[in-house]
Design brief:
The chain has 2 domains: about 270 residues, 7-stranded beta/alpha barrel; about 270 residues, Beta-galactosidase, Chain A, domain 5, CATH 2.70.98. The protein is built from 21 helices and 26 strands. The strands form 4 sheets. Strands 15, 16, 17, 18, 19, 20, 21, 22, 23, 24, 25 and 26 form a 12-stranded antiparallel β-sheet that branches. Helix 17 runs antiparallel to helix 18.
Length: about 725
Amino acid sequence: MPHPIRLALVLHNHQPVGNFEHVFEQAYQDSYLPFLDVFDRYDSLKITLHVSGSLMEWIDTSHSEYVDRLAKLVDRGRIEIIGGPFYEPILAMLPSRDRVGQIRSYTSWLENRLGAAVRGMWTPERVWEQTYTRDLVEAGIEYTVLDDFHFKNAGLVESQLAGHFLTEDDGRVMSIFPGSERLRYLIPFGSPEQTIEHLAGISERHPDSVVVFGDDGEKFGTWPGTHKHVYDDGWLAKFFDALVANQDWLHATTLADAVDNVAPAGRIYLPDGSYREMTEWAMPAERLTEYERLVHEIENDPRWPGLRGFVRGGFWRNFKVKYPESSEMYSRMMLLSRRIEQIEAADWDEPLDEQLLEAARTELYRGQCNCAYWHGAFGGIYLPHLRNAVYDRLIAADNLLDRLERRPEHWIEAVADDFDFDGRQEICLANDKLVAMVAPSRGGQLYELDVRAIRHNLLATLARRPEAYHGKVLAGAGGDRSDVASIHDRVVFKQEGLDRMLQYDAHPRKSLLDRFHDDEVSLEAIASGEAPQHGDFVDGQYDARVRRNPDRVQIQLSRAGRAYGKPLRITKGLTLDAGSSTLEIVYLLDGLPRDGSTHFSVELNFAGMPGGIEDRYFCDAKGHAIGDLGTRLDLTNIDGLGLVDQWLGIDVALKASCLTNFWTYPVRTVSQSESGFELVHQSVVVQPHWHVRPDARGRWTVTLRMAIDTSRAKNHDEHPAVAAAT
């Protein structure tokens, strides 16, 4: 008989803030509920369970009986509940105050609702930095589980990883468990017998040790093909049967039991990292492609197992470099976190409304949910509804803080600062209706436009860029894989012809991008990105100054650059009034050649307004629909153009001071998710353009008014946190 060992099964269940209601429900029906139904029948087994706060709140609202069942299993000692940051943020992107605050907040919720004694935590995406330790201990955490990959990167080998280790920072000490990568791939994709055989081998080599499986609960029913495999074909019941049959030597335990009954295997300091696949996804696309090529060439070399422990991928924080749109969300989140800190530290004539403050903090925490900030095998940042959800919560927090500070009904301000931590100043132009963020150093672009009434950022866009997996799209990857496999190995195409849809953007998909074109350039060439550009203004440095009146503020941007090889100056102004939801955009081109016309355009992008849906459409100046928002339009000499999204409850009306031509086309990305490769709508491009003929001084000017109407939105501002704080 094998020697005794302990097996800690640690399940992590999570759905992100902003995911669709039907996705929550399907995951509940496919994974969370059937797993508990099977587990309930095996009285002698124990597990450790983590449910993210965003998912737990949904379950408690939609299926409170499930939470009641968990509470009973906790009381019977069969389930250990571990906590963590409430809304599943990557801890590396939070200031210490929010790390501690999120963890304490969720611990309190779990103790009150489940009667759980929360001692351990799940580290989101197992993204670890050693300096977390002091914050986790301060928040009351005794232990967490990471991957064995972390420990191997610290120099340990497989034979040393059968237990838990102590780690320390600033004199604070806690335990960390190495989760087994081998078990992550065996469970549930291998047979139960293979798992038992693997564990028996460990027991022979390392008696009285602790082995940890820590992975997503969604792989038990929600991942493609797994529901039939795990439940209909009986894999989970067979696996639990095998654990029971071998429990004379294989003891299913909890992390708490292991910490209390097994001495630490030693002390360790871990390098920054995550699970192996995450470190690969964080690499730049071209380096990841090269990395995968090299691994493919060497993986059958007998030296590879020995070398693999010395090979590391990238660093999680560099997702904010790989995807600048992630950095934009992060910067906005940090701005709000600092604002809350400053409000708490300020001296106020009257006591702060603590209910409003906590509601704002909760919305900030929800806006820190990690899934929209990165991309790997899951859709992540490529999913517009997740990005929109982040901004929804951050804007909600902003609105609540305005109420907390007792701002007047109508106000206007402009603040210059390095909001995105790039060493250059940006300008935030804001009033009670809109927030506009402008980057003078990056083409004077408008990179965020928040509509406060509906908590929507019209510039939560995403540029099209190369991804390492695009090679599989181009190659067809040998067709679909229909067998049950880890999502890291599946190749499924959700649409045909995705290889023909691959296209990359030379510049971010933002607004106020200033372009010069050939006279007769076609819409097709513009939309495909094949049209040559004849100016250096799109990403050039603009000088900026702010003009202020009590109820009106203007940002004036100016650049002396070149177009068609000749000197030219563009001056553009962005003006906003207190109480107004209309942006006035004025362009002045100076130094134009007087012997002909110049073809000039301004690219605008609108996010969160998808195409191909009947109630989301373009309209002419009279309000007549002229095509859904996925339509390519080539309109000439018209008064204006509107975009309507009845679901969001927003009308955007663009009107120029002269007859204007408009191009429109959708921006779609080819990306991967756990269900396969897919085409995703990211933004709508609206590009007014003119064949400019200057006056006698070589000048030309136009005024473009962007009027934003949210009167279609009904009770949209009755956000749960807002309602609770009212």
